[in-house]
Amino acid sequence: MFSANVVINHDPFHPGRHREVKHLTGPAPIKYLTPKTRRPFIVLRNGEAVLRKDWDQIVANHDTINVVMLPQGGGDDDGGSNVGQIIMMIIVAIVAYYTGYYVGAEWGTAAGYAAQTAVGIIGSVLVSAMSGKPKALGDGTNTSDWKTASPTYNLAAQGNTARLDGAIPVQYGRMQVYPDFAASPYVEYAGNEQYLYQLFCIGAGHYDIEAIRIEDTLIENFEEVEYEVVNPGEALDLFPAAVATSVEVSGQEAITSTWLGPFVANSAGTEATRLAVDMVCPRGLYLAEANGSLSGLSITFTVQARPIDSDGVATGSWVTLATETVSAATSTPQRYSFGYGVAAGRYEVRLQRADAKNTSSNAGHEISWAGLRAYLIADNDFGEVTLLGIKIRATNNLSQQASRKINVTCTRRLYTWTGAAWAGPAATRSIAWALYDACHTVGLPDSRIDLDGLLALDAIWTARGDAFDGRFDSTTTFWEALTRIAYAGRCKPYMQGGIVYFRRDQAVSLPVALYSMRNIVRGSFSMQFLTPSDDTADAVEVSYFDKDTWKPRRLVCKLPDSTAAKPAKIELFGVTSREQAYREGVYLAAANRYRRTIIKFTTEMEGFIPSYGDLVAIN
């Protein structure tokens, strides 16, 4: 029976997710199987590329036709995608897969995985070198996506926001951040003063708080502000955090003998133990006398509540919570909050004015229902995160806009390995212990992390002054985050034998293996010299997040005899020091100039001797 498959991959970066699979029951030319689209794509037949001129070939029994759609974009130095490079990377992935398949069939599954990984790594390095742009060991230079979504690195988005279903930020090193809301802000009135309650999430783990500011001013300069830092495992004492505010109640005027509402106080699945209403007399409470003085007036109103189920159906009768009376003799707007304890449950609330409104033009006798809140039952343990609770009294000294510009300068506290035991946690900007924490966070035990290698690298980074100051506040994968952290230290993670290792690109003097005519497969050796062209970058323009201004800065890094006429643009995520950024930029420029010889050969089991980044000798 005839059987062949056509697989259309719409996203080459996620081939398993966005694809169509079609089964053929008879032979057909390839050209009839390609999609009708203006997007560029390539066709592979059983893993081998098929040129357009050969699309008249007939699909045979058991053939697999792959149609891979290519992303569109420019190949310039401004960060556009290089289609040729993408095609080469796809071919590398296919070759790696089939290499692993055949090696695994001959030598076992473990050998197959190792061969697939080796081909993938070597192929990636080769493609990067052939692209004509300087590339460091990692792939952490493309930052367009996370910068757009990040409230830390996107200057237009800096401010306090509620990012529902967003990632809980994970920070390493020292940063100035605008923390997200950990709960919905709410207001209360007391003594005709308005108080704003805000709870922020600084991030996962422990932090040393260096400064808290509202916009650019230290919070200590505002007498009307109280705050509390809540470390992991601690409870918030400054104010209740789990408070639901009804959006339906928004300043409706209470009218005599007419009920306002009912309005639902808390959502389905929650239970409230306290209800509160906010009342506002927008013109004050007064009666203007003929002599110009103001005499007092009063307003009385009744608040009722009844329990409801998750569908909003009443499960009990209306109960009067209280009948309140407010009095004043002033034209200044008056604001009041009234709270009532209730049995745990879900409620709806209604309100009615009990007295007659004085409608005289010389009387201020209106009252509006300004707010309805429910104080919920909630666990006051927020887990392994650090929170910041702030209580603000509204004054002329603090604008509403500034109250959403609260920022914190803080340093992450991490455990450090001494070679014999763990110490800390303590504030650190170490790249090594950020890498360890990232591995530990996803559940890797110490036995699967190269601690001795990290300890040696930490000594190198400390001596050089290299650090990682970065904040992951957008969703990413573990390996991508690990690669970005390592990239700041000219390093790359790799996994071998189930253990995560880290290799820094640095001078090595001792070869671990020798390859000659005895162990190189005949006819497989080649040496290619990549000569510079007019499009080859002659310098590197580094973008980093400056630790003094907390804004992006650009720095041109070039070798002494370079004119820097065509710099390549590189993003250094996690680098905040100008000195470190310059060192890495010059390193990338030198790598681009001097690393232009590509040696390729095939060997057998001797290929398992070196690890990634090892020095080998070739005779």
Brief summary:
By secondary structure, this protein is an alpha+beta fold. It has seven helices and 38 strands.
Structure, described:
This protein has 619 residues and is α+β, with helices and mostly antiparallel strands. Helix content is 17%, strand content 35%. The protein contains 7 helices and 38 strands. It has a 5-stranded mixed β-sheet, with no helix packed on it. Strands 7, 11, 12, 27 and 28 form a 5-stranded antiparallel β-sheet that branches. Helix 1 packs antiparallel against helix 2 (109-130) and helix 4 packs antiparallel against helix 6. It starts with a strand and ends with a strand.
Estimate the strand proportion: 35-45%
Question: Helices and strands: which structural class?
Answer: alpha+beta
Q: Pick out the low-confidence regions.
A: 74-81, 129-146
Number of helices: 7
Termini separation comes to 53 Å
What portion of residues is helical? 10-25%
Strand order of the largest sheet: 2-1-5-3-4
What is the mean predicted local confidence, pLDDT? 85
